[in-house]
């Protein structure tokens, strides 16, 4: 048991040690300084030339958003057509069928918004063509979209008055050529040499040692798994994601994949500090995120190692901890670390079944997604945190009786309104969705859908409610993991979560960028003795309090009805 | 929006070539150099493929070491966990049944000696491993069925332990059983 805790500590410390130089590198890249991947410059120039883009033309925040939304809309059309026709297209060695329109709607949105909620199973719901040219494609470009949006914020927070915030296409392309693609190749190679398949061979038929005939699903999975982790996407090649022994073959690959989940989200926090030359601010932000992350992590690890009280009552000894839904090669501690990493960063890949974890772990995973800013998704994590920051600045300004200012700009009514709407949108989507599905289960259990509401839940009681709460939380947070017992491939879940996904993605990008764009055009007031220091630890504490209060007040009742009630009933 | 339409379309095509076509060709090419040639690592006995090293198999006969319970019965064309919640009464009944079955096949073992992993389903349904403790409690049954010395089987198990200084030690059940068959043939 102690050695397993050592594994958790080593994984986390390694991640942070790698994230610091990576953050420095990212900051240099945005500044246009020379880096080790400078040789990509001709490739990028070539791309801009083909696309007819002038990389030197700077955009204001509205132009950024227009470009971002236009290309996302094109991806939607492309992906939808591919998914509803995949059955009759090439690269389909297993002969899998096309998706139904409602499933395709959900799938395509879910991947565009970097969520990767999967209402299908990879082995049978997609073809090799759509795995690579739709799903994996979106995993690259949606991550790059998030980073590009974040870079707009970086540009806006510099200490000069401007509406020129860099070029969207440059941010987008460089996120891929200088960050996502090179790192993905490294991770894919590590996976391939540890047994993850890379070839295009279809299912294999074998006769086992005991004489049973079984088929084994395979496919070119290694490349997709690399970007799914690095881009906080999370959608796996196989149905059970990184619990599958081909997708995550051993403890070493588990460490590598877990690092890949956390690496870029943490590195971006450091990049903010290096880029703005405000390292103390980055340290405070990292500190607040880390305190929250470690509190949630330790609760979950403790709960998993202690095991399931219901099994203990039956006389089953759990020397290694709770093992239902977990793989022997990872064990409970590494599975809990993964569960918290994946929900903190809006990644959503899993190496154990969250539905079967102890109730406290379920609660912590949901809390992670409800806050969605302890590191957070690639790019969007810091955007979410920025919203909390604005609220914290405003409240502390009122408390000490000074004009609220952040990095030399006044925070006024307009910015505050946007920040409040974005902060409240998240609880609204999650709680309204859960309320709606609960209503339907009770009042229309026999509705004629692919899965009847009466059969939605895989578990009775509090846990069943938790399955629905988790699904909407995961959708709104663009996470993509699930309490997978939920019978979610039917028109109700595909459509409702589809809309939650869109709103939960684009409004939290539009809002913070609008705030940033407005702030960038305001008069810059140099810091003086009267300024509230936004890079002090006191202010960090204030931000932490705002996050806790917003999350706790909004979500505590729902968590109480689900996992917390289950936890206390198990005692 | 119109101004951004053409660049967006072209950018989409360029990225399809770069991130999908070129990237997957590079990865597939490197995969050819790996031990399994990119198809997944296979295990062969006397030239016959008996399975994949990383994919667990169903073992129900007394002469073999058993792996963990599986929600998909080790049918590797798909994969799934049980997704049963920790307080689900149906689930607790299933666990009880597994305990009873295990006790029937392993005489002389008490309920308290069974590691939890042998009565709980794995995450993938294809878990290729068990812990050393789970192998040890099966030694008596396997040795008796095969008419082998318990000490001999135990030393075979010990040889097969894959040590992990920062995580759980495991044994690959398929590899162990292949070695066991070879022990009998000697």
TrEMBL record, chain A:
The chain crosses the membrane at residues 6-27, 67-91, 132-154, 166-193, 259-277, 284-303, 374-400, 421-442, 491-520, 541-565. Keywords: Cell membrane, Ion transport, Membrane, Potassium, Potassium transport, Transmembrane, Transmembrane helix, Transport. One of its GO terms (cellular component) is plasma membrane. Pfam families: KdpA. Its main location: membrane. GO terms for molecular function: P-type potassium transmembrane transporter activity; potassium ion binding. It comes from the Bacteria. InterPro entries: KdpA. It is found in: Cell membrane. It is a multi-pass membrane protein. PANTHER family: POTASSIUM-TRANSPORTING ATPASE A CHAIN, POTASSIUM-TRANSPORTING ATPASE POTASSIUM-BINDING SUBUNIT. HAMAP family: KdpA. Part of the high-affinity ATP-driven potassium transport (or Kdp) system, which catalyzes the hydrolysis of ATP coupled with the electrogenic transport of potassium into the cytoplasm. This subunit binds the extracellular potassium ions and delivers the ions to the membrane domain of KdpB through an intramembrane tunnel. The system is composed of three essential subunits: KdpA, KdpB and KdpC. Belongs to the KdpA family. This is Potassium-transporting ATPase potassium-binding subunit. It comes from Paraflavisolibacter caeni.
UniProtKB/TrEMBL annotation, chain B:
Its main location: membrane. It is a single-pass membrane protein. It holds the Pfam family KdpC. GO terms for molecular function: ATP binding; P-type potassium transmembrane transporter activity. GO terms for cellular component: plasma membrane. Belongs to the KdpC family. Part of the high-affinity ATP-driven potassium transport (or Kdp) system, which catalyzes the hydrolysis of ATP coupled with the electrogenic transport of potassium into the cytoplasm. This subunit acts as a catalytic chaperone that increases the ATP-binding affinity of the ATP-hydrolyzing subunit KdpB by the formation of a transient KdpB/KdpC/ATP ternary complex. Keywords: ATP-binding, Cell membrane, Ion transport, Membrane, Nucleotide-binding, Potassium, Potassium transport, Transmembrane, Transmembrane helix, Transport. The system is composed of three essential subunits: KdpA, KdpB and KdpC. The lineage of its organism: Bacteria, Pseudomonadati, Bacteroidota, Chitinophagia, Chitinophagales. The gene is kdpC. It comes from the Bacteria. HAMAP family: KdpC. PANTHER family: POTASSIUM-TRANSPORTING ATPASE C CHAIN (PTHR30042), POTASSIUM-TRANSPORTING ATPASE KDPC SUBUNIT (PTHR30042:SF2). This is Potassium-transporting ATPase KdpC subunit. It is found in: Cell membrane.
């Amino acid at each position: 048991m102690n050695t397993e805790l050592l594994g958790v500590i080593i994984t986390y410390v390694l991640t942070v040690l790698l994230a610091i130089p990576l953050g420095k590198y990212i900051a240099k890249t945005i500044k246009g300084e020379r880096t080790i991947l400078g040789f990509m410059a001709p490739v990028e120039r070539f791309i801009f030339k083909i696309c007819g883009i002038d990389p030197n033309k700077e955009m204001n925040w509205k132009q950024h958003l227009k470009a971002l939304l236009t290309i996302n809309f094109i991806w939607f059309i492309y992906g939808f057509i591919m998914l509803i026709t995949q059955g009759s297209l090439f690269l389909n060695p297993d002969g899998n069928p096309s998706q139904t329109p409602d499933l395709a709607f959900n799938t395509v949105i879910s991947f565009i918004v970097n969520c990767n909620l999967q209402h299908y199973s990879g082995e049978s719901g997609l073809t090799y063509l759509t795995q690579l040219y739709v799903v994996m494609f979106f995993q690259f470009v949606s991550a790059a979209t998030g980073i590009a949006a974040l870079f707009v914020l970086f540009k806006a927070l510099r200490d000069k008055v401007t509406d020129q915030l860099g070029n969207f296409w440059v941010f987008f392309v460089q996120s891929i050529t200088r960050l996502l693609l090179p790192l993905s190749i490294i991770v894919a190679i590590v996976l391939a040499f540890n047994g993850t398949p890379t070839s295009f061979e279809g299912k294999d038929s074998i006769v086992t040692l005991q004489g049973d005939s079984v088929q084994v699903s395979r496919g070119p999975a290694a490349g997709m798994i690399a970007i799914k982790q690095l881009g906080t996407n999370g959608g796996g090649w196989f149905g059970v994601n990184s619990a599958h022994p081909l997708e995550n073959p051993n403890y070493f690959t588990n460490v590598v994949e877990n690092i890949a989940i956390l690496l870029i989200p943490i590195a971006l926090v450091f990049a903010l500090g290096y880029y703005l030359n405000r390292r103390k601010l980055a340290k405070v932000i990292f500190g607040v995120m880390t305190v929250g992350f470690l509190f949630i992590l330790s609760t979950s690890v403790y709960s998993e190692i202690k095991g399931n009280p219901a099994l203990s009552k039956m006389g089953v000894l759990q020397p290694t901890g709770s093992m239902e839904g977990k793989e022997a090669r990872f064990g409970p501690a590494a599975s809990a670390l993964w569960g918290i990493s994946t929900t903190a960063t809006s990644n959503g890949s899993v190496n154990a079944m969250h539905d079967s974890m102890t109730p406290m772990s379920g609660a912590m995973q949901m809390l992670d997604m409800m806050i969605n800013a302890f590191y957070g998704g690639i790019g969007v994590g810091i955007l979410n945190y920025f919203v909390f920051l604005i609220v914290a600045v405003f409240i502390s300004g009122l408390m000490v009786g000074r004009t609220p200012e952040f990095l030399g700009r006044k925070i006024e009514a307009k910015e505050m309104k946007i920040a409040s709407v974005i902060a409240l949108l998240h609880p609204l989507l999650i709680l309204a969705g859960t309320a709606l599905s609960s209503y339907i289960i009770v009042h229309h259990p026999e509705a004629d859908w692919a899965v009847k509401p009466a059969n939605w839940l895989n578990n009775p009681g509090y846990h069943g409610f938790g399955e629905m709460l988790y699904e909407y939380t995961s959708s709104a947070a663009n996470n993509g993991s699930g309490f997978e017992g939920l019978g979610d491939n039917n028109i109700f879940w595909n459509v409702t979560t589809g809309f939650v996904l869109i709103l939960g993605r684009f409004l939290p990008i539009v809002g913070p960028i609008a705030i940033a764009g407005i702030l960038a055009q305001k008069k810059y007031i140099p810091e003086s003795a009267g300024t509230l220091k936004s890079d002090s630890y006191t202010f960090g504490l204030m931000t932490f309090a705002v996050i806790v209060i917003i999350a706790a007040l909004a979500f505590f009742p729902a968590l109480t009805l689900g996992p917390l009630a289950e936890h206390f009933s198990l005692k | 929006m119109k101004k951004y339409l053409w660049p967006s379309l072209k950018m989409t095509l360029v990225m399809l070539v770069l991130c999908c076509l070129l990237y997957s060709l590079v990865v597939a090419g490197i995969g050819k150099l790996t031990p399994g040639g990119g198809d997944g690592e296979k295990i062969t006995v006397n030239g016959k493929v008996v399975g994949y090293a990383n994919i667990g198999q169903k073992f129900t006969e007394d002469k073999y070491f058993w792996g963990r319970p599986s929600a998909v019965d080790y049918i590797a064309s798909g994969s799934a966990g049980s997704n049963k919640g920790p307080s689900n009464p149906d689930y607790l009944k299933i666990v009880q049944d597994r305990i009873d079955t295990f006790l029937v096949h392993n005489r002389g073992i008490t309920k308290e000696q069974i590691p939890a992993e042998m009565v709980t389903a794995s995450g993938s349904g294809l878990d290729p491993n068990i812990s050393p403790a789970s192998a040890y409690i099966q030694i008596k049954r396997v040795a008796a069925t095969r008419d082998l010395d318990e000490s001999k089987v135990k030393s075979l198990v010990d040889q097969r332990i894959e040590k992990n200084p920062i995580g759980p030690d495991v044994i690959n059940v398929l590899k162990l059983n292949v070695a066991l068959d070879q022990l009998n043939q000697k």
